[in-house]
Write a structure and sequence with these properties.
alpha/beta, Cobalt-precorrin-4 Transmethylase, domain 1, Methyltransferase, Cobalt-precorrin-4 Transmethylase, Domain 2, 9 helices, five-stranded parallel β-sheet, single chain
Amino acid sequence: MSKNTTFGKVILAGAGPGDPELITLKTLRYLQQADVIISDRLVSPELISQYAKPGALVVPVGKQGGVAESTSQETINQLIVEYAAQYPLVLRLKGGDVTFFSNVLDELRTLVNHRISYELIPGVTAASGAAAYAGIPLTARGYSSAVRFLTYYRSVVCHEQSWKELATTDDTLVFYMSSEVLDSLVEKLLDHGISGEKYLTVIEQATTPYQNVHLFSLREYEKKMRGLKFTSPTIVIIGRVAALHEEFQWLENSMASTSYFKPVNETVDQIA
């Protein structure tokens, strides 16, 4: 690419956790103006089908655990640069919030290295959306004064002292991308002294029509939850506040196992 290439502007924006009405007005405005939309898998399909600019080029760059068709981060970086060189306005649309577990760092560095103008727009992160739609105030007074956003999966190494600290804190623990190793996660916390009276909530496909909430005390986990498989995406909330779901639940479980978000091997057509 020539050093004299003139680039358009790239908008890095969060689309929210699923419910299309949770998008910000600012991101919606850019969605209606963008020439190219480079979209994650965990973006409501309704947003693009209903609000994208007519004729906009939609480029799906989804990632899905264990699926070979997932788009590599290197490819996403290259696509951002290529389309910014061809179009005046490119929208990089991410599920949830743009800075929470979204791997935005590589994309920011790519933009800076190519001297491409950009803007960051926050969105409703999955933890916030899931908690609200499950009726769980994450820092309810008298229950928890702090919340931690974490992730735990097979490749994550967590030291013994860290497990002990997580097991004994009164903070609310919110785990992203951890449902597939939930048995291991609970074992680690129990082995390091977490109270069996604390509650664990698994929220499947939060804020979508297929949302399901599973609530158990850690003492009940072995009998009722061990080995269960959950529909992605999921959020795990651990702490005293999780029990408030029973009191403040306002959205009934869908009881569905259907996936709201399309698999990465299903393409999205250009908006007519």
